[in-house]
Amino acid sequence: MDFISTGYNGGGAGYLLSNEAARTVVERGTEVRCKQDGTIEDLDMGRCLAKFGIFPKNTRDAQDRYVFHCDHPIKLLEGKGNAPSVYTYTRGNRTFGNPNGLRVLSPDMISFHYMDPAHMFMYDFLLYDLHRHGTS
């Protein structure tokens, strides 16, 4: 498989583009030819953005924890699913390990992959409606 030397963001948890990146793609979209229908959309998206000179940035928090997650939060907490293979790699002289449990979850997380509607409703309730006893 032909990967991108500068890397690309996995798409399962969604994408976040800067205003400038989105503007560039919209305004110059006819200048380059990008694949419109494929089976590996995150790789295709990375290739397309690279044609515009748009490359991924490190989206981890200050402790190198991911904020876009490739799997369901319960699987991440249990160290199952995609977590063991995805969360281990080397870039330059730094090796990023395979954290399990709470160590993989940033308090600033943005999204998860494989979220079904029932879990989305539950997390919404826990985040926005549930209050600890004795707090307002």
UniProtKB/TrEMBL annotation:
InterPro entries: C1GALT1/C1GALT1_chp1 (IPR026050). One of its GO terms (cellular component) is membrane. Keywords: Membrane, Signal-anchor, Transmembrane, Transmembrane helix. GO terms for molecular function: glycoprotein-N-acetylgalactosamine 3-beta-galactosyltransferase activity. The keyword Oxidoreductase does not apply. Gene3D superfamilies: 3.90.550.50. Belongs to the glycosyltransferase 31 family. Beta3-Gal-T subfamily. It is a single-pass type II membrane protein. The keyword Mitochondrion does not apply. It is found in: Membrane. This is Glycoprotein-N-acetylgalactosamine 3-beta-galactosyltransferase 1.
